[in-house]
Write a structure and sequence with these properties.
The protein is of the alpha+beta class and about 120 residues long. About 30% of the residues lie in helices and about 35% in strands. It has two helices and five strands. The protein has a five-stranded mixed sheet. It is globular, with a radius of gyration of 15 Å. The N and C termini lie far apart (about 30 Å).
Length: about 120
């Protein structure tokens, strides 16, 4: 999906999203262990920065996010998301920013970050 205020920006967003979608095959070939629940390819990040972004959602498999992060050498960040906690590891692979994400319900306090999982 692409969102923009003028046609030129819309085309650029769509091209970035297509780049991210095409990279998904290579990313998953490199990381077949990821239990993919769904993927999103976009032409900009949440802040509106243009680029190729691929989000691979693993539903509630927090351990898979942690293992993938260790494999590619990046940290896992935990942030609140719609009354849940979102665990995300991000890396640049195949010229695409890849976010591997899992969610958990907020039931028990987590001493490290104040979120509940």
């Amino acid at each position: 999906m692409s969102t923009a205020l003028d046609p030129t920006d819309l085309v650029h967003q769509a091209q970035h999203a297509l780049t991210a979608a095409q990279a998904a095959t290579a990313v998953l070939a490199d990381h077949p262990e990821l239990p993919v629940a769904r993927m999103h390819a976009t032409g900009s990040d949440a802040g509106g920065k243009a680029g190729a972004f691929l989000e691979i959602q693993l539903d509630e498999d927090l351990e898979a996010v942690t293992q993938w992060a260790a494999k590619v050498g990046v940290p896992v960040t935990v942030t609140p998301f719609l009354r849940r906690a979102q665990h995300t590891a991000s890396a640049t692979l195949h010229d695409v920013t890849v976010h591997v994400t899992a969610f958990c319900d907020t039931n028990e306090p987590d001493e490290d970050d104040g979120l509940y999982c």
